[in-house]
Amino acid sequence: MGSSPHVKFLMMVSRLVVDNFFGVFAVAVAAAVVGRAWLIRPEEILDQMLTLPRVYVFLAVILAAALEKMRRMRRLRDVYLVEYGCFRPKPCYRTPFATCLEHAHLMPYLVDEESVAFAMRLLERSGLGEETCVPDAYHYMPPDRSLKASRDEAELVMFAAVDDVFAKTAVIKPADIDVLIVNCSIFTPVPVFADMVVNKYKLRSDVKIMNLSGMGCSAGLVSVGLARKILQVAPAGTRVLIVSTEILSSQYYVGTERAMLLPNCLFRMGAAAMILSNSPSEARFRLRRVVRTVTAARDADYRCVFQEEDDKGNTGIRLSKDLATTAGYALKNNIAAFGPLVLPATEQLLVALSLLKRRLLRGRAKVRLYRPDFRTAFEHICIHAGGRGVIDEVQDGLGLSDDDVEASRMTLHRFGNTSSSSVLYELAYLEAKGRMKKDDRVWMISFGAGFDCNSVSWECVKPAGDADGPWAECIARYPVQLPEIDKDIRTTLASTVKVWGNEFRR
């Protein structure tokens, strides 16, 4: 039964008062001060100021200037996203399901029939479409897992993303980059990816470079957090180039263990690049909050996503049966730290009241915790497109609508799981659809090996002019209707946040 108009009006008024309590209080105090000062004539105020000793006035001016100087020195600089770009694969890299099935049957000595059937069932229910792409190495039988193939893939996807971001920022050239951060989880050649970018774009000899590896799908937002720390204390006008990718060529698993077959089914080629700065000039987004939660101190979490060899010596990524519990624990802790920073006061008050009620009624009644509405804090939410189950369970846990998770689902359908770059493909989807407006707030969520969970929030400063990006030539076809899957299958494909979602629903 819906609430009456009077109840809705009272809720709206209470929300405005609570969320703006300090503002209302300040206005009331200012009004009282003005009311008292109104009784004093301007001539009396001027006479009192003129009677003060000049040394007092001089000291007051010096003290005010010193306090302002100290405030400016202690205040950390704001960080901005100037522009971003994504790799857009050509149709020749496309791998429809029929191609996957045919290739699997051409490798009977590597993968048995039962494993092929399992992988195909998983693929068909994964939420991926027929246009996702894999590198050249995957189109060979058997796949080319050589170092050269991996280097070729890295140069293809990374350089395309960097070219795209520089093409969008005509005022920023490679020589203007002060810091370079590149992340790729598994493949780490020598020289590293950062050196490859420096060599390709002839960056300055004094550029600061960092190469991150082993952090899984969360590495893109980890890089944003690292860039933020640098830019907050760097000289004004400092620019950071971040490149996020995952290289597949050398990581194709050719064994038969089901726990290690999942990456073959979900991961696809992709990369994204972004330029961050501590100057608002030409900025498109302002970075608001960054919260990272790491649970690697727990042994089960540390081994939850683990690269190792199977009993036949085939290297792959093993997913633990405790993956749901591990990620649920990390995400719940991340939300606990992130929520108070972004939620309006009314939502925080409702959470606090429900916690208090549960504590007071412990043992006497079952109290359901209030689930905060994050849509009061954000207009857009980008959930890492790690799989259909990931998106389903985050949607259920946060109480989001289908529209709220559309960008994540469509990114998974069109591009697959592109690891650390997926949230930028989702941001590009929102902009290509024309949904991003000035002052809109965006929440990005990612998680990866370790185990860790990351939340990053942005505020739109200037929507994109030409926003098609990686969605050019296909955005008009989206959103598409995804086939339904029954509850048992969905449980089998359950995401890493299931436990956290269940906690909120209790």
From TrEMBL:
Its EC number is 2.3.1.-. GO terms for biological process: fatty acid biosynthetic process. Residues 379-459 form the Beta-ketoacyl-[acyl-carrier-protein] synthase III C-terminal domain. One of its GO terms (molecular function) is acyltransferase activity, transferring groups other than amino-acyl groups. Residues 73-360 form the FAE domain. It is an enzyme of class 2 (transferase). Keywords: Acyltransferase, Membrane, Transferase, Transmembrane, Transmembrane helix. Pathway: Lipid metabolism; fatty acid biosynthesis. One of its GO terms (cellular component) is membrane. The keyword ATP-binding does not apply. The keyword Transmembrane helix applies. The chain crosses the membrane at residues 21-39, 51-67. Belongs to the thiolase-like superfamily. Chalcone/stilbene synthases family. PANTHER family: 3-KETOACYL-COA SYNTHASE. This is 3-ketoacyl-CoA synthase. It comes from Triticum aestivum (Wheat).
